[in-house]
Amino acid sequence: MRVALAVDLQSAGDAAAAVQEFATVLKRDPGNVVALNNLAWLKLQRGAITDALKLTLRAYERNGQSPDIADTYG
User: Fold this and answer.
1) What proportions of the chain, in percent to the nearest 5, are helix, strand and coil?
2) Which band of pLDDT confidence, cut at 50, 70 and 90, is reported for residue 74?
3) Distance between alpha carbon 71 and the CA centroid of its chain, in Å?
4) Is the pLDDT score of 12 beyond 90?
5) In the chain, where the domains are located
6) Per-residue pLDDT averaged across 2-21, rounded?
7) How many Cα neighbours within 13 Å face the side chain of 27?
8) Considering only CA atoms, which of 73, 47, 49, 48 is closest in space to residue 62?
9) How far apart are CA 14 and CA 29, in angstroms?
10) Which fold has domain 2-73?
11) First CA to last CA distance, the chain
12) CB atoms within 10 A of CB 1
């Protein structure tokens, strides 16, 4: 449920709220690839490249076959 909320917030352009929701998801489910990937993308957009790389690498290691994750990782 929180992932869906975070995705909706991200789509609506509320990056700050989306970051908070994705971070909450990852506290409960550290391997959630949607949260890892989308949080990485948001961090990259904010210039937090090191944090983004760590998150996207974790997502890629869990599901590198996903085109969305591979795109973020690339």
Assistant:
1) 80, 0, 20
2) confident
3) 12
4) yes
5) 2-73
6) 97
7) 7
8) 73
9) 22
10) 1.25.40
11) 28
12) 6
CA 69 to CA 16: how far, in whole Å? Answer: 21
Q: What is the mean pLDDT of residues 1-21?
A: 96
Report the C-alpha gap between 6 and 74 in whole angstroms: 23
Count of positions (residues) in the chain: 74
Buried b (16+ CB within 10 A) or exposed e, 37-70: bbbbbbbbeeebeeebeebbebbbeeeeebeebe
pTM of the model: 0.92
User: How far is Cα 53 from Cα 74, in angstroms, rounded to an integer?
Assistant: 10
Q: Tokens at residue 31, please?
A: 């391997």
